[in-house]
Amino acid sequence: MKTLTFCLFSLMPLWAVAQQPANGVVLIDSDEQAPQLSELDRQYIVSRLDTLDLDRCQQRPLRQEPRIVYRRLTLPHKKARLTISAAADVMRTNSMVIYQQSGQEWTEYYDCPQEPLLPVLAIIATAKVGNEEIGSNGIRQTVLARHSQLSSLEASKLMLRTDSNDINAMFLDFTVSSKHPLFAQWPLLEESQAVAADVLERVIPGDEEYLMQLYLGFTGRFSQYIGTRDSSPVTARRFNPSVFYRMWSSDESWLDLGFAHESNGQRVNTPAGLLEEERNYVTHGEDPTFARDSLSRGWDYAFIDWRLVWNTNLNSQLRLQHYKRKGLLQGPAEEYNLWEDGGVRNRPRRQYDGVTLALQYNFNSSRCFLGDSFICFKEFELTQTTGYSKMFENNTTTLEFTTDVFGLPIQLWTKTGYNSDLVDYYQYVNSWGLGFELMTP
Fold this sequence. Notes:
By secondary structure, this protein is of the alpha+beta class.
């Protein structure tokens, strides 16, 4: 009996090989368990890695086959089997080894193109073991690959800019914006989000897949006056933390529902405080109007943001914001004060902002000059903003034209209307700038 049992266990590896899927995709973890892959997962893995060109990777020999640290995926690739040994936090650290075996020798491939690898790594990291539901949602895989850690929220930019109501010179203006998933590893939240996505897929007509994810976002904008003001000061223009639920319908289309706080981080909110700031500038021989940079602005608002990709060239984004007169974080809103310039009427933010429609055309590198990579048109974007109170009375138009010059995303930007910054949101201003669009959502 012992001999029979030993023989059966000895034959188990052969039985496992015989049970391998027809496409030869095998996933195993360090505990010698096999995380479940649906047939859709296997087909998706094969199709993605078929586009991986190993000739574009760096190569080096391995002395021995790498051990399984977390999970190992093997599959046919071209004329040999390809193996990916990944760590548990591969989506954050990119810790993995890609290799092929030839006889008793192994060859490692590194510095490979990331585009075909990222969704596959998401499947490796999130595939379920046992009787748990298999995560075969293609949208989920792609979104986790690109947005599972810190990623872009709005476009981050660095540019030289000028505003018609500011100094008569260019100043340095930079915007940083990012988001991060909240409680992504909390099972209860993950399960509830999966249930919500499943309900949407059942209720909304069509074959679309959806993914729900809670995010924490932040956008900040700052300006530096190099050589045009004493000591080249940096002025805070915008601090904008937010919490929102994003419903993904693809890795580029989504619907956001959220709550945010927006302020400029300044402290002057009385006539006496503004007068004191003006005197300080006069004392140092500077223009007293610079004191307006210290006026405090702040709001809480709820928002809906809908981005839709129509085709490979065109996408749109509709954003609706409702400014709270008294918010949870801000308290009473800090808006325009009549004492600032002897005004006779209030100018609430809702009259100048709250409804934004953006249309973006992507050239997809189809318009290049002087070769395939010297100067390429990248994208053109038109944005129209108005207030939801007295709609279309105070309008703002923004144009952005982005090119790729030797890999540098250079953007020409112009704006006419309101909201040049939070202090002067109610003033009509003409602005333009030239710089770099560093990260895009």
